[in-house]
Amino acid sequence: MVITSSSSSSVEKTTICHIPPGNPDNAHTITVGGPAVRAHEAHGDYIEGSCEDEDFNPEDYESKKESRSSESENKESKALDRAQRLIEKLEQKITDLEDRLQKLLAKYESGEYYGNISEGDSEINTFEISLDGTATSIYDDSVTQDMLGKLFMENQVTKQDTTKFKITSGEIEIGGDIYDVAFGKARLSSSGTSGEENSLVIVMQTIDSLDNENTVKMTLGFTTSIEGEFGNPSEEFEILDNSRISEQWFLDGSGELDLKS
C-alpha cells in the first residue's frame, strides 16, 4: 500500500488499483483519501499499490476476488439456513402454544378446568387478595421490579377435606406492565407435615400488555392455619418460593386476603 501526503491538506492519500467489476483489463491506478480505502477494498480494488506493481496480476486478482465472493455467498447462505430453521422452530412453538391455549379454553368452557364439582356450595362469597412485593427476572436475578396486585375469587366447594375457589378477575402490575386475569382456580392446601390447611395454591391464566397469554402459579402461605370463617377477619400471608409468571418472573412478597361478601 503506497501512502503519500498532500501538501495542501493533512489528509493522507493512498495509491490503489481500481478494477472495474467484470472488466479487469480496464484496471487503472488512482489515488484516494485514507478514509475511502476500505470502501474500495470492499468492492474488490487492489489496495496494496498501483496497477503497475509486479505483484499485481488483474486476472489472478479477479480470480481471488471471485473466490472471496463465493465464500461470502456460502456464509450468507448458511446464515440464511440457520435463520430459517430458527423461524420454523419459533413458528412451531407459537403453534404449540396456540393449541395449548385452545385446549385450555375448551376445558374452561366445559367446566373441566375446575375439576369434578358434583356438589358445589349453595352460598357463594367473594374474596379479595391484595399482593405487594417484588418480581425477579427468571433469566437474570439482578433484574427486579415492584409488584402489586388485586385478585378476586369465589368459593366453589367448601368441605372438610376439600376447599376450592374460582379466580374471577384481577390484575398484577410489574414495573408498569399489567397482567390481566382471564380465569383461574385455587385450593386450600397444607404446606407442611401437620396436615393443617395453611396455604392457598393459585393457578391462573393472564393476558399481558402485548396480548400474550401467561400462566401464573402462586402459593400463599398464611401465618396461621385456616379456621372458622375464611377471610374474616383478614388473613395475612407470604408469597412462597417458586411462585412465578411463566418464563418471566419469580414472585415474592406478602399480602392480605379479605372476605368481601
TrEMBL record:
Highest taxon of source: Archaea
Name used for this protein in its record: Uncharacterized protein
Lineage, opening ranks: Archaea, Nitrososphaerota, Nitrososphaeria, Nitrosopumilales, Nitrosopumilaceae
